[in-house]
Amino acid sequence: MASNTTIIFVPGAWHPASCWDKVAKHLEQAGFNTDLVDLPSVGPPEHLKGFEPDVEEVRRHVIAAGDAGQKVVLVCHSYGGLPTTQSVEGLDLKTRQTRGQPGGIVHLVYCCSFVIPEGESLIGAFGGNDLPWFIISDDKMQYFPNGPETVFYNDMSEEDAKSATAMLKPHSYQTAHSRLTYAGWKHVPSTYIYCLKDNAIPIVVQKMMVEQTAKGYGVRTETLDASHSPFWSMPKETAEAIQRAAES
C-alpha cells in the first residue's frame, strides 16, 4: 500500500530539496508519504571537507521513516547518488527487521545520478578530472556550475531556467572527492531513470554506469526525454517513473 511507503528525495549538488516539490506532490496525490532532504553541503556557512554530513543527513531521514514502520524508497539526483548510496548500509528493510526495527529501505531510484563502485568518487568517475563547466574556488572548498541554463535546464523555457538557476547555491567541492565505502545498489533493488537530453551527465555515461558498473545487479530502467532536471521539466512523468519503481 502506498500509505505504508515514504519516498525520500535527495537533491544533487547546488540544489535545494525543494526542487523535488512538484514530483513529491504528484506522489502524495497517489497516496505515498514524502520527505525531502536538504543536503548540508549545499550553501553551508562553512564548506564541508567530505560528504559524511550529507550521508548522515540522509540516514537521519531514513531512520525516522523506518522507525515509524514505513517502507522507504530513496530517490536521488546527480551528486545525491553518492551520499544516498553510502547511506544505505544497515538501513535496508531486511537488516533492520532482523534487529526488531519495523521499517527500512526497499528500493533506490537514481535519477540521472551517479552509480559508482566502492573506492570511487564523483571526480574519479570522470577520470579524476574536473568538468569544464566547474567554477572552483581558489581554496578548493566550493564550486559552482558555469552556464546552468544550458547544462541543467536545456529543455526548459528561458524564464523557467533563470528561475531555477536563481535557486542554486555554492556546493562543498571536497564532497566530489569523497570515496564510497558501500555500494547500496548492490544490496537493495534499484531503478535508474535515464534522461536523454542530459548535458551534465550525458546519456552514454548514464548507460555505461548501469550496463557496465552495475552489470549483473538487475537495475531496472526508466527513460525520460528530459534534461538533467526532469523534476522541473517533466514532474508528472518523473513521478510516474518513481511510482512504478516503488511498486515493482
Automatic annotation (TrEMBL):
Q: Name one Pfam family in it.
A: Abhydrolase_6
**InterPro entries associated with the record:** AB_hydrolase_1, AB_hydrolase_fold, Sec-Metab_Biosynth_Hydrolase
SUPFAM superfamilies membership: alpha/beta-Hydrolases (SSF53474)
| AB hydrolase-1 domain location | 7-241
Superkingdom of origin organism? Eukaryota
Origin organism of this chain? Zasmidium cellare ATCC 36951
Q: Which Gene3D superfamilies match?
A: alpha/beta hydrolase
Q: Which protein is depicted?
A: AB hydrolase-1 domain-containing protein
